Amino acid sequence: MGDLPLLMFKNRSKPVDGRSFLAELAELRANINPGTSMTEAVEWYTNANAALLNHLTKEIKDTDSSTIWRYLVGFKNLLRSIECKGIGSVLGINYFARGYLQPRSHERYISHMVLGRDLLDNTLNLVPSLIPLHMDIKEDSPEYQVLEKKNQQIVDNKQQDGSVSDAIEYFDQTATLLDKLRAVQKQLRQYIREGVNESLTEARRSEAVCAGILVLVCVVSPIIIALVRNAVNTIQVYARNLSEKARELEYEKELSDSLLYQMLPPSVAKQLKQTQQVPAEFFASVTVYFSDIVGFTAIAAVSTPYQVISFLNSVYKLFDERIECYDVYKIETIGDSYMVASGLPVRNGNKHATEIASMALELLEATSMCRLPHRPDQTLCMRSGIHTGPCVAGIVGSKMPRYCLFGDTINTASRMESTGEPMKIQISEDVKRALDKSGRFITAPRGVVDVKGKGEMMTYWLEGRTDPSPVRPTTSSLDCTPSFLARIHSKGRASPRYQPESTRGQI
Predict the structure, then answer these.
(1) How far is C-alpha 214 from the chain's CA centre?
(2) At what angle do helices 429-438 and 352-368 cross, to 10 degrees?
(3) How many CA atoms lie within 13 A of 236 on its CB side?
(4) Contact partners, residue 250, CB within 8 Å, separation at least 6
(5) Burial environment of residue 242 by CB neighbours within 10 A (0 to 12, 13 to 18, 19 or more)
(6) What is the pLDDT along the chain (507 residues), one digit of tens a residue?
(7) Is 103 helix (H, G, I), strand (E, B) or coil?
(8) How far apart are the C-alpha atoms of 361 and 430, rounded to whole Å?
(9) C-alpha span between 470 and 492 (Å, rounded)
(10) Cis upstream peptide for 345 (omega within 30°)
């Protein structure tokens, strides 16, 4: 007497794995004798019912009919309710026959009776049309109240003398109740049959409608295909035009963003585009670099305006290309003055002094190799100054907003440049201390210098690096194309991206 396979209920007489349900049932009945345990027999029927209910549950889950699923679930719950009440009645018979239930049996009785009542209530909730029939069963059963009292007596499980006659009477009463519940089950089965028939009728009706629709589609499909083809062609033309316009827009956006990022720091520019307001910010420690061209006034006096512009453009283009290799930001150029800072707008810890120092040495070296385009015999001389300290930075202006620095640090850096000497880099004592911590730069004391507005200050010359300087190609080209435009144009040539007619042929 083991568990029954679920497939055995698909056909009660067809063998599955060499067995069938009827064969198993016949074997069980043949083996029952006075010595057979009642618990074992009840367990076999419990397993059989569980297999049937599991199979029914699976079939309910697989159905897609929304009109009868409540009936199917209610039918399953009603089957389980009858089964639980049947198991409870067996345990109740055992109580009246012996006068007492063991704790395990008493627990099983309560659980099955409670589960049976809950399943029956669930069935009535799912199929309200069964409620009057169930109420009639209660009212037409005079022994119903007596049976409820006996059930409560079993729940109390008080010790009493066993009585076979009481057990038989209890069995008859429960059997009558179960038969009436099976009548409710029969009525529910009728509901299911009617629902299935109605669903089949609706399905046939839907099938006829679908067939008519299919015929209609076959008739009008050539017209629809022709219209769709024309619509697709129109959409493709529109998509190509839209894609072309999108490439033009993307190209123009890159131009405007690149130009904006040349005028303002990228982080500040993005914040300005998003909020239209960028608050000023305090920086505890930055390094500022100033430089100017020695004798620029005399050079401008003997040069034409175009020669001055070309000369300054070649020098500052060279400087701009070199500073891109460092963590610095070019603040502005006014005439022959060149101002660069590090440590803002993005803080870089204690690296700002070494970044500016490395950049200043490379710019000085590049300057020594420059010649004036219109006066090749004259060498370019530059004077530089560096100072480290706190400052305030922020956006100034609304028509042409600029990122400006304010504070005594900027004034001191300017004085380091103006009091310096040609082709030398004068640094303050604060810069020297910062560079000494890195151990990569060579400095020499200049002495005490009288600085306007600051008084006497000890200054130093920045003479070189202890490690090799990076080797960069020198150029004397006077190409006036801005570097950011050159980068965008070169990117456009490397990929099949759109280039406007107005920019083609200029590179």
Answers:
(1) 43
(2) 100
(3) 6
(4) 497, 498
(5) exposed
(6) 444 444 455 555 555 555 677 787 788 888 877 777 777 777 777 777 777 766 666 666 555 555 577 888 888 888 888 888 888 888 888 888 888 888 888 888 888 888 888 888 888 888 888 888 777 766 666 667 778 888 888 888 888 888 888 888 888 888 888 888 888 888 888 888 888 888 888 889 999 999 999 888 888 888 888 888 999 999 999 999 999 999 888 888 888 777 777 677 777 777 777 766 777 889 999 999 998 888 887 777 777 888 888 878 888 888 888 888 888 988 877 777 889 999 888 888 888 999 999 999 988 888 877 777 666 677 778 889 999 999 998 887 777 777 888 888 898 998 888 888 888 899 999 999 888 888 889 899 988 888 888 888 899 998 888 877 665 554 444 344 445 445 555 555 444 444 443 333 332
(7) helix
(8) 18
(9) 30
(10) yes
Residue 427's DSSP bridge partners are 386, 460
How many whole angstroms separate alpha carbon 211 and alpha carbon 217?
10
SS3 of 450-463: the string is: EECCCEEEEEEEEE
Identity of the amino acid at 370? C
Strands 371-372 vs 329-334: parallel, antiparallel or unpaired: unpaired
Cβ atoms of 392 and 407 closer than 8 Å:
yes
> Would you state the structure tokens that stand for residue 164, as one six-digit string?
């076979």
Residues 239, 234: Cα–Cα separation, whole Å: 9
Query: 317 is written with which tokens?
Result: 């283009």
Query: Distance between CA atoms of 403 and 263, rounded to whole angstroms?
Result: 8
Structure tokens at 79: 């089957």
Q: Which of 434, 447, 315 is nearest to 386 (CA)?
A: 434
Where do the H-state alpha helices sit in 9-62? 21-31, 38-62
SS (H, E, C) 303-372: CCHHHHHHHHHHHHHHHHHHHCCCCCEEEEEECCEEEEEECCCCCCCCCHHHHHHHHHHHHHHHHHCCEE
Measured at the alpha carbon of residue 113, what is the angle toward residues 112 and 119, in degrees to the nearest 5?
85
Both tokens of 406, joined, read 């304010």
State the Cα–Cα distance between residues 367 and 417, nearest whole angstrom: 16
Asked if 334 and 292 count as a contact pair (C-beta separation under 8 A), the reply is no
What are the φ/ψ torsions at residue 458 (nearest 5 degrees)? -85, 120
CA–CA dist 246, 239 (Å, integer): 10
Contacts with 364 (C-beta within 8 Å, 6 or more apart), sequence order? 382, 384, 423, 425
For residues 52 and 78, the answer to whether their CB atoms sit within 8 Å is: no
Burial grade of 423 (CB within 10 A; 0-12, 13-18, 19 or more): middle
- As given in the structure block, the two tokens for residue 328 are 């610095």
The strand pairing partners of 386, in sequence order, are 289, 427
Rounded to whole angstroms, what are the CA distances from 474 to 292, 316, 424?
20, 13, 20
